[in-house]
Amino acid sequence: MIGIFDSGAGGLSVYREIVRLLPNERYVYFSDNAHCPYGEKSQEYILARARWITEHLISRGADVIVIACNTATAAAIATLRAEYGLPFIGMEPAVKPAALKTHSGVIGVLATAGTLKASKYLDTKDKYTDGVKVIEQVGKGFVELVENGELDGPYAEQVVRESVEPLILAGADVIVLGCTHYPFLRGTISRIAGSGVSIIDPAPAAARHLVDVMSERKLFRNDSRSGGKNIGDPKAADVELSSSGDRSALERIFNLL
Ligand code: DGL
Hints:
Elements: E1 2-6, H1 12-21, E2 26-31, H2 43-59, E3 64-67, H3 70-83, E4 88-89, H4 95-101, E5 106-111, H5 113-117, H6 119-128, E6 133-138, H7 142-147, H8 154-169, E7 174-177, H9 186-193, E8 198-200, H10 203-216, E9 238-243, H11 248-256
Parallel strand pairs: 1-2, 1-3, 2-9, 3-4, 5-6, 5-7, 7-8
Helix pairs in contact: 1-10, 2-3, 8-9
């Protein structure tokens, strides 16, 4: 069984991509919304939550865990891998594909404060962005918009504009979505960014990585990729949704998948 967690409903943007590739696997999704957002919390706090959630997911039957959260990946994946005997898949900051794609030589990264100051992100940036200018912005208020189900409309537009506009004014022609909540605001982000700007969501790459790891470790359910009835509909998959706080936020986003 595949366990997936995030600080909230954002990780459903990763779940959606995974189900496209593995429609007939079993899933347990945990939203830690009683502790959301993670973005400004300390590494110790997030690590403590990640350990608790890992144990919860294992108790529900998970044999592989996807940390569908950039902030929690940066804060906890190395420790979780050392402490637990099952594979963990994390979110990679997609600066490498962005640096390869840019024509203007400027890329924008939207992420949480926790992700942007983590060594995981800083190391990746150092390694892959030679000769490319990287402009970073915290998507201020984005997580709250998604948790409240406000994905468009004038207020969402105003909040998103504040973080996206500086990237465009700096000349970015590629924007990396470095937080799993942000893909749910993709329509608003791309309207503000304009048609000449490409947006990169790392979720499909994370889903492909999961398939490779499960294949290496022979973790597929017998009928996982053939023989089952689901053809990739995230709502029709065999999934258990759970959360530490009110479930309605999670259900609202789930129903939009
Ligand atoms: N969705 C998360 C991420 O990818 C966390 C957002 C938050 O809780 O601040 O970083």
